[in-house]
Structures are given as C-alpha cells and as structure tokens.
C-alpha cells in the first residue's frame, strides 16, 4: 500500500464548524471526481498496528486541476480524537493519504443525474459538478438537492443553478420538503440518483426511491461494490 505524506497548505472556514483543509498534491497522486481517501494524522503508523483512531475516510472536494487536495469536514466542540487532532493542525503540518478510490464517477449514459446529499456530504459532489461543467457529454442534466438543517449551505460558488448548462441546485432544511422534492425528481423514470450522507440517510433514500419505482441499478452510493450490498437488502 502506497502512503503519500503531504502538507497542509491552507485551512478555509466554510461555515460554522466546517473547514476545508487544502493539501499539497504530490506529483504522483491523482484521483477522479467523487474520490475518497484515507486521511491519517501523524503517529497513525508509529505502533505495531495502525492506530485507527487517527484515520478517517474523507472525500476529496476538489479536482486535480485545482492543484490542491481539498478535504472538507465538520468539527463540533464535542468531537472524536481524530477531529480534535485535526483541529490542531496548522499550515505546514504533515498528513498522510492512502487507498484513494472513487465509487461515484459521472455516468455518461445520456440520462439526467440527481445528486442527493445530506450536510457535509455535498463535498463529495463538488468535483462532480465541476467535472460536468467542463465536459457535459453523455449527461442530459444535473440536479443537486441537498439537505442541511443548519442552513449553512456549502460551496455556493460551485452549487448555483446555471440553466444554460442544464445545472440546477436546490437546498432544503427539513426532511419533509426534501422528500417532496425527491418525489418530483422520480417523475423521470430513467434518471440516475447518487446519494451521499450517513448510513441512515442512505437507507431512507433507497427505500423512498424504490417506493417511487426507481430501480437499484439507478441508485449509486459512495460505497465500494462489496459493501453497497448491505444497503440494498
Ligand atoms: C466514503 C466516505 C467518505 C466520507 N467523506 C467524508 C467527508 O468528506 N467529510 C466528512 O466530514 N466525513 C466524511 N466521511 C465520514 C468520516 O469518515 C467520519 O466518519 C465522520 O466525519 C465522523 O467523524 P468522527 O468519527 O471523527 O466523529 P465526529 O465528527 O467527531 O463525531 C461524530 C458525532 O459524534 C459526536 N461526538 C463525537 N465525540 C463526542 C464526545 N466525546 N462527546 C459527545 N459527542 C461526541 C459529535 O458531536 C458528532 O455529532 C466519509 C465516510 C466515508 C465512508
């Protein structure tokens, strides 16, 4: 397994409790839209076994062309050891990245794509939107629907409706409105649905989409094929 050690080059506060850590992109490190990586803090591999409390899965919220690896996360006052160590990082500090892979690349099947996200989950979709805007071939249109009860909607520069590019963006702050909107989206029986959020959110969405006649093949989760199965029981 290749471990890339890199440095923090910027820390941007996106919203209360939400930060993007910009990391220097090593020359041989590359990724596709929607990729996630393992972000590990110094000391994670200093013992006999890797210290899992210093490692988390994180999506990469940037594209390679932006020349930095963006990691966007929420850090509440009460947080895990990982987040409390992350909060202490400053520019120039080192972190490690490994096992980088995308489960949610854009499917260019001449269909509409709906991006459904909860909270900071929208970070996973930012590179998809940017990639679509640079090359829309094989995609009818993209609609992003995100729910965030804090109303701190992230990345408003990337997530804005552009009718001339068939991109529409909607933010809601409660489940009732969210599912009303999802129901509208399911009127297109050929559309694809990408869902990112906590496990309960994924299960709820799958069951709602199925009830509207959307097939499992139309639903994409940010889970490896071998792990996605448990969500589609
Ligand atoms: C493919 C994939 C991609 C992912 N991408 C991202 C991403 O881009 N960004 C991201 O943020 N996460 C992402 N995650 C989730 C991430 O890996 C973490 O599971 C998540 O951020 C929670 O982090 P944490 O366990 O350090 O807990 P925390 O975020 O610290 O805590 C989780 C919750 O528990 C509460 N809590 C924690 N500790 C305490 C305590 N001591 N006392 C009281 N309450 C406490 C917190 O307030 C919070 O509500 C991804 C996961 C996967 C599988």
TrEMBL record:
<dbReference type="InterPro" id="IPR039261">
    <property type="entry name" value="FNR_nucleotide-bd"/>
</dbReference>
<dbReference type="InterPro" id="IPR017938">
    <property type="entry name" value="Riboflavin_synthase-like_b-brl"/>
</dbReference>
<protein>
    <submittedName>
        <fullName>Ferredoxin--NADP+ reductase</fullName>
    </submittedName>
</protein>
